[in-house]
Design the sequence.
């Protein structure tokens, strides 16, 4: 044990002579900046502890409050529009009510119209088209459109006059205001 103590004391005495002279943190930073500017290949960067000391010694004697809240002012943009312009409004609002076909009566319409179009004077290839177009125009646009379509098909001689009249009556019976 005594021998180990002697060796450690000898090492302690020899260690300060082996180390280069101590630099203050400011001098260490200045030396590093000069070496970087001159691209000195022999320059050794300071140990991390020395760098930490440099950072922590920037304001000696002053303790930083790490819980301090930083106050920032929020700058509101000045170019905000106040209110809406007349053409900025979007949305349709309420639409004008029109007479249209009642969606609840679609099955009833379909069976009644098939019976009417089962007439031998109506060509087979036009039956489903007329049936669907009358309902689609009457439900989506208005019954005036479907009545116009019936007149058009009557003018094209696809529908005879008796069939066209009965289809008009059927459309008028199935209307509702919506």
Sequence:
């Amino acid at each position: 044990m005594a021998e180990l103590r002697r060796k450690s004391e000898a090492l302690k005495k020899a260690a300060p002579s082996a180390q280069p002279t101590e630099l203050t943190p400011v001098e260490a930073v200045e030396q590093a900046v000069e070496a970087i500017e001159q691209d000195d290949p022999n320059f050794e960067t300071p140990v991390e502890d020395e760098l930490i000391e440099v950072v922590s010694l920037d304001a000696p004697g002053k303790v930083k409050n790490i819980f301090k809240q930083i106050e920032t002012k929020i700058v509101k943009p000045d170019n905000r529009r106040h209110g809406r312009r007349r053409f900025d409004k979007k949305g349709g609002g309420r639409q004008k009510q029109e007479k249209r076909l009642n969606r609840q009566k679609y099955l009833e319409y379909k069976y009644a119209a098939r019976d009417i179009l089962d007439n031998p004077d109506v060509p087979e290839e036009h039956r489903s088209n007329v049936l669907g177009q009358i309902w689609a125009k009457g439900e989506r646009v208005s019954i005036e459109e479907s009545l116009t379509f019936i007149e058009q098909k009557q003018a094209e001689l696809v529908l005879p006059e008796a069939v066209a009249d009965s289809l008009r009556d059927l459309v008028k019976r199935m209307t509702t205001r919506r």
Summary: The first strand starts at residue 99 and ends at 101. Confidence is low (pLDDT under 50) at residues 50-58. The helical segments are 2-18, 25-38, 48-56, 106-117, 124-140, 143-155, 161-173. Residues 2-56 form one domain.
